[in-house]
Specification:
34% of the residues lie in helices and 25% in strands. It contains seven helices and six strands; from the N terminus they run ααββααβαβββαα. Strand 1 and strand 2 form a beta hairpin. The protein is globular, with a radius of gyration of 17 Å. The N and C termini lie far apart (70 Å).
Amino acid sequence: AGLSVYAIRRLHNPKLQRFRNASSLPLDVIAKAKPLYGEIVAVDPSGVRFYHLPLLRRAFSNSVSNTVNVAEETICVRPSAIQWTPKLEAVGWMNHVLVGRRVKFIPLRQVSEEHPGVTEGWVQTRKWLRRKDVSYELLSRGLAEIDESSPARTDPYLIRAQAAGLRLRRVSK
């Protein structure tokens, strides 16, 4: 009996459970900002589509971007601290860099007032030991602006990125 209780508790562990959409994310995952790992399968006007891969699936799966029903099987994610008004260049950059890549997603809040089913959080890509924050990359390339209503608007890291993006836009004009 003790073993079965242990097995049931382990099966409901967020590291083993797959979250199919934003409504299936437990509130404690968002409140504690627990990182989720998966793959970006698409970029659309409401955000990037994140396919959550739990621990065991991550170890034994290949790319899932061609086999997923995007609307039902993915979490719609907006990169945190930036205004989400995707320009054509930003969508092109995200399609080129993010789609098909494994990412780390840290959910921060549900954006249910304006857009139900959308989750805001930090999205990071990783190549070897180097991590890239998607919000930082969009700001530094001049493809986005800091959201003034975001709690991260005073982060000096993002302010430097936005300044670099503004300089880049002035030089290219």
